[in-house]
Fold this sequence. Notes:
MreC; 277 residues; Cell/Rod_MreC_2; 6 helices; Thrombin, subunit H; Cell/Rod_1; cell shape; six-stranded antiparallel β-barrel; alpha+beta; elongated; single chain; six-stranded antiparallel beta barrel; Cell shape-determining protein MreC; 3 domains
Amino acid sequence: xxxxxxxxxxxxxxxxxxxxxxxxxxxxxxxxxxxxxxxxxxxxxxxxxxxxxxxxxxxxxxxxxxxxxxxxxxxxxxxxxxxxxxxxxxxxxxxxxxxxxxxxxxxxxxxxxxxxxxxxxxxxxxxxxxxxxxxxxxxxxxxxxxxxxxxxxxxxxxxxxxxxxxxxxxxxxxxxxxxxxxxxxxxxxxxxxxxxxxxxxxxxxxxxxxxxxxxxxxxxxxxxxxxxxxxxxxxxxxxxxxxxxxxxxxxxxxxxxxxxxxxxxxxxxxxxxxxxx
Length: 277
């Protein structure tokens, strides 16, 4: 204790200077918008850099698992190619016309939360690479989330594990659809609600994105039906869906932009406005 007191007395001028310097910096940042914005930008850049370095270390130790995933994905793609007659004969893939409506970018997850009620991810790409809000985020296993905000070099994503981020989903090979939501309980499951009782479904059926979505292409995998309930208030199905994705272990993702999103919004809004006259 005496040594601590002696240290404080001996360095009192230095400590007082550092204290006054810190107070002056805080007051300057709080009272000047320019300094405050520069501080926030610097903090965001530092956070993004830190997340990148941490992610690089984690990725280094996970190279074997990542290589195995890539090998599995290549095998799946080869199987698809080998079973397409036009691909075998011509050596070219015929791209469906619908794909011309979407652009696809690649990014890497450098931060990921999954244990909160409202979870977000951070990507190592931003507006400089063409990423902006309301773009779909997927990977080879299915839906991940929706881009929320961007800076020049980073983007945040609203995770599918978010209690206030509904998206359109449907039963695969069926026109019955509902809303994908999350009850905030289990990171391995989401819920498909508002499905009419006329729908034919069973445990194990696949759930995919629906055609009503402005953001996601149709038929992107989400998960499989695990349990089926009836909502007594709405008399509709509530379906517990086991996610295909392991949302606690995300690496590379694809960011998809629907180039006709705005056009679809305008025409549907015009129709709805006309019906209310």
